[in-house]
């Protein structure tokens, strides 16, 4: 049984700001807690949307858009309920790190969680057993974090249930990101996505930039996307805005992914969104500690456009250096 | 007297790759060394250029352009001598950090250094007493590093000696960055810039992006800039390329700088290069750990355009959040 | 099967000082061991008492009283056997931390342990499978540690078996602390207490101060308590001393617990043992990093007296700030 | 020249809350600042009092009393000026550590500081060259911090200038702590006290408890003391309260200090304020890692009362274990 | 199912150098990998040998001999296949530590591993389920690492299957180390050895020195041993070299092992390979922090010769200080 | 003026064990001390010898021999005085590290120290101003520590004063190590050696093995050496033992030193004491993270014998890999 208790009601009318409180005994506070910020806004009858950010603690578009939404959305505007967690993995968000500093766990590989597990597993369990079952639509924000950078896209998964897939695709298109992507996860074990989809919910996720920062442009995409998904679900009134302009991306096979054959300083030769021919040099890698050594060049395995890249100037052997995707419309 | 010895001759004809070797006794190597990579290329008669990167270890345009230059430049092309240090502060470059992990010292506040000081001070001393005196022109690359992001510009300082200043400005314009900036340092004590200028040299510095990454575009600016400065100095033949298109920036007063009044998540409202009106909101700051709290908004102290910004999604009280500069041409 | 071996016999007559030795391979000693100090004193026929301290490594009354007892108690005084572990979680005691520095595990949530688990789980397993089964009476010392401070009390649990509960209560009253407390654990999973009680033993635990220190007064309470429990069990001869003066405390419901609504500097307004009216301010919280901000005041949820408090001057959101208990006699 | 700038005027009428801002370039913020909270309250004509806390970052009575004072004191009540710095060593206060986590420097051995030194030295320099010269009376709060515990006392130093000493003693007595102490520092080099006294100011300091916590009682002493000193200086109106009851302490010689002859667990045999005879056992030290070893006993070098003690349960060889002082009235 | 993929074919003719790639998402590379170096050499028909080093990351004879072998061995020399992993636990080898810095796991207690476990468990699983099943002979190198020092020996285990044991003994003797040892593991759970033997393979392991270094002599033993085992298996042609001179060691019982009764500085009185009489002093332990204390002397439990010893100058209570073995031929 | 006080008299007859006590305020003990163990043995009239070990904290022959000597030497045997500091840099010895963990300072580059400096500088100052002036003969033990390994030798320096040099050489020969070495320091600034020699004292130093361990053989050399030096000085009676067998080594020029041209795993091809021809391969360096790359071979710059080597299996670019010395007798 979960040890987490919300400090506010989850289903009362009106707007409440509070926390999920998880007791956590540690050296610097024997009777301490992990506090996960939470806002619930309930208006008239209608479906429930669960909006989450901070699954990884160094991705900022989601937390920013959700803080704004939690601040400005009023019960009178809402037909149904909006549950907002801008910092699902609160310890990671506080630290600005991908994985939780408490237990070293990557939250997006910790689902469905364990009620008697580590802090991250306990949070995952609460989401999987309490919040997701209560939701009709779930929007989980991701960006590249400190070490990856992406073209901004919303995404849906290929699912066995065609109706569910169609509903997810419709919500993804409604989000209205500049790019949309259909994804087939190779290793979906432990993902929040999988947990939500297995409960039959409509699920949208995103990658909206990266580098451990956010821009005015990227936050605007995130905020418009949340409003659009709520409009699409009938929770907010009014038409979806600006979704028509989005383009579809595809990552058809493993050849999309390019790994660093050795470590060093990355010298990029192509920027995000630029077209790439098969065999074209994508980047060189120079040693960081000596001159006079020929760089190692990484060539494109396939044609397409650069959709994601390793962000930091230093790279290690085996890091994913570049993703070449295909624009399909 | 310096403890540093170069492993290659500094003035022999031809092209040599090696190191500055600085003995450094430490727990994991009693008779270890700090090794600073070095390339010297000497052709026919002519002046000496000293090209440096990695003054701060998380700024990548300089190291990448200088690795490329050290690799491709041949003595036959050179009228004079080119001394290249792509990683001045080699321990910081290896670690990807602004300051040296060995002594915690910010190299650009360590000049003119000390022969009997810490590792960073010893490197500064060697530059100030051996390499800078041997040079006619010095180009030192900077970018924003992991925590700042800049419009790409080359810069020169206001100097007491009008002739020297004119020579520096000419070299800065020759560099050919998209932007150029005249700077008046408030606190020039300890800077490499000051040490070089006080020895009467022609000096150019840069800020070419940031975030602890580099892009194909930013490295191209850096590389073209180095070639242009060498052409301008007569060390490489051929005309300076593309310098005409650059624009001039100015930071006329302290009102350009905007500091975070509290810590939290930064929600940027303006992006780099965008025009800003006086009083316009530049960014909001939300708490990272709770919802339902009004954001703190930072407004522009003056009109202009956004020339630099805090990069990470998390900000602390007192961090410089934004710099609003003025385009002067 | 346990990897732990005692270096002394557990049941030989006389007095033996030694260790539980647990092999532990680590970077700084491939064939190292965790050594848990142990004294066994066996005299004439009689029951076995197991006395434990250092379950949390920053709580000092237990380890001090048990060192004294292990030093002074002679077989001729003992009718039965006394097994003393003043530092159950020896790595935590050596480090002065609540949880083990070896594996980060809170020993009092690690029972009944695992023979193939982490270091703390292996110690718990040895206690649960070897030492507790051999005991008739178990006394486990706790105090507040570095982050909590308590009125000094001995405690027993509400148990399903009325006879066992009565035996525990009698032993608790015999301990003779200034306060005694009946506890109903909400989350008893993993506690040493639960493991002992489930084996049908007489169990007494304590909270005897806190702050990561001990005083002459608090150690005297602890030492008298151990002697009293041994007298009560018939292992030492002579009457129980000073138990009559103790008072009963109760924590009837969740309203006893007060959590910090935000982090900062705690300004306590009530001290331990003082009476509290419902709604009375218990403490203010000031920001640690700025002036001119109104403090947040925490008011008492219920009347009673202050029985426990957060000890360090800094507090974080969600820390238990104060416990208001009720004196029931 | 100092790099510190106040964000508020230091001498304008009214009440202003702000910061001393010290630029501090570091890996996680290239253009960051250390922000030292500051309140200035200026009313009618009169002297200037400088009230400081957080010289050591783990001592809480000063910061708490000064936050309260900064919040509640109004210009209309003030004849002169009150400058309040509740967290002089702001990085240490934020971390809850004695010395600054930025440079490892103990602020109270860093005076008179250096304008071109480390962060702590720069703060010391600003105090020594700007704030202290502007003050007539200086009150600097200390307590025992996380590792010492004191009887609560205010203190003044034996000074060469008899008039200055008398003024300081009068202010100390006005403070009204339960105890007062005349101190002769053996090693006064680097202390804030010395810097203030050498400028001819009236100076009062304190030790008001310890352990890294504060109590309702100890904060009340601190707050009353500040108000009393301001009344004594004529800055607040009304009589000094409760000062008559205080008693005088003396530490006449080095025999007052008792050092741990070996490390281990401290078993205290006397508590703060209790009378001590010469040769009386003050504490035992037991090993933390084994039983069956005789404790080492520390005996009193002289008669008196226990005025200070090592606080944590673990002690190391050479730690000051106990201070036996003499009550002189 | 394993997440590990080899970057080269495991069964193609010829010689291939590459990696086992294990995706590993971490704070400094969201899409990073653990890369385990791998060479496969396949010539004519014949058996498969799996040669592994770096099971512990601070043991060097194996990685050095296997690098040499991977470099010099050509397919034309090989009848069958040689699979070489000089750094099984690649993160530990990179860090020079016994256990993996990624998860703190001792690889030689992690078998048979878990496909959904930690990084070390995933590598163990891949070995247990893919590489070991494909092998006929397995040679796994060990040395003492940074904290132990051994006489150089190859070893085989007592096994239930007499034929398998005989085959292992023959391979051990063929290895040709100066010493050979028959081992009976007390606690074989989790060892690579056990996993290999349970699959019915011929298995040889070694201890070839220690201290976290290698010598010309010890690497020569390791390299000759690998060649000899391959010759013995018929994979290389030519006779086994120098195996006749080896001597047999035995560790008949627990009395072989001598543990440190307290911590301090070790003063060895016998060196590796020297004869020892029962009761002879093996070493003294002096305190590291004071003089004038009698040393604690450790005496031999049994006669024999010193076969292994604690290497670092500092020892902790419970560390294995010395192993006295018996030469049996 | 020094803050250090000895806890025992430095010149009283008899034998005293105690400490040099240096007050050191730190986060975990506000009134703590650094305690440097000290033994003084004074018998009849005669000179004073100062014997020191633990200048670097990971070198064990000196501390072990000096503990033994401090334990066994009796005043009746001593004509004069013997001052023994087995752990000069006590914090480094406690941590087993070359440099002090308190301030990161290498003690043997900290002389003559500073009375107002860091902990290591204060200890150096005390030695330079109190203990060395009181001595006639000084013996300072060194070994290779954790990262170097040496042939065992005693050493003296070439000095300007021929008489002083002759006295030092005579004492060095008396020490009776297997090897003796005349040294000409390139960079003698900050060394204890220099401080002692500049005060005109007879000085002997050593290098007696390495790797952060000691052997029965190496401690025996150290202990015999100390006794021999004391006999040679007339402080102990009886003849010097075994000194005749020693051989002389020389390191005539910089060509003796061989540095690693790149990092990786060291494959040694020559062992300590073996003869080396000019151009002979001394060691190879393999990458630690991949196979299939040719090793880098380091060849001997000059003929001689291998006198010292890098000890750990991993090496970094610029580490001293090998020292080839010349046997001169």
TrEMBL record, chains A, B, C, D, E, F:
<keyword id="KW-0479">Metal-binding</keyword>
<dbReference type="GO" id="GO:0016788">
    <property type="term" value="F:hydrolase activity, acting on ester bonds"/>
</dbReference>
<dbReference type="InterPro" id="IPR043795">
    <property type="entry name" value="N-alpha-Ac-DABA-like"/>
</dbReference>
<dbReference type="InterPro" id="IPR014336">
    <property type="entry name" value="DoeB"/>
</dbReference>
<feature type="domain" description="Succinylglutamate desuccinylase/Aspartoacylase catalytic">
    <location>
        <begin position="45"/>
        <end position="232"/>
    </location>
</feature>
<dbReference type="Pfam" id="PF24827">
    <property type="entry name" value="AstE_AspA_cat"/>
</dbReference>
<dbReference type="InterPro" id="IPR053138">
    <property type="entry name" value="N-alpha-Ac-DABA_deacetylase"/>
</dbReference>
<keyword id="KW-0862">Zinc</keyword>
<protein>
    <submittedName>
        <fullName>N-alpha-acetyl diaminobutyric acid deacetylase DoeB</fullName>
    </submittedName>
</protein>
<dbReference type="GO" id="GO:0016811">
    <property type="term" value="F:hydrolase activity, acting on carbon-nitrogen (but not peptide) bonds, in linear amides"/>
</dbReference>
<dbReference type="GO" id="GO:0046872">
    <property type="term" value="F:metal ion binding"/>
</dbReference>
<keyword id="KW-0378">Hydrolase</keyword>
<dbReference type="InterPro" id="IPR055438">
    <property type="entry name" value="AstE_AspA_cat"/>
</dbReference>
